[in-house]
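The protein record filed here.
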Amino acid sequence: WPMIQAPLFQYPDDPAAWLVEDQYLFGEHMMVAPIWENKTGRHVYLPAGKWVDYQTRKILEGAQWHFIEAGELPGIILVKYGSLIPQVAVALSTDSINWNEVELVAYSEDGEAKGDFYVPETGALVKLEASFAGGAWKLNEKGIHTGNTRFSINAF
């Protein structure tokens, strides 16, 4: 499926998701709501479930509209609660990204998070699962091959 999707693509049974024309999902786990016309905030529709504001880390309930102010980034990004989002150090181009050191951010307080990771070395898309136990997040690596990538996991 395409990386950028209208909300109705992931939430076909949600009538409000069919009406949203100015926000999109980036993959399955992130909702992006651009801000237009020199404004500092906007109304955003969130499908059912919990969502985490990427900039403020505030948890919002879905299946409703919210007015959200932008933070330092001039837009609004929300992460589906329970997601595991890979992040890398800032690079000047995709050619210079260090794929050997990837931080996974767990957007969960419930002890479980899931996400996807594309392994550049092998071209494989792997499903990642992490859990919080013994005071630390741990990646369930059973059956996954991530090449030379080393992961660190932090909570939002």
Summary: The first strand starts at residue 4 and ends at 5. Residues 25 and 119 are 22 Å apart (CA to CA).
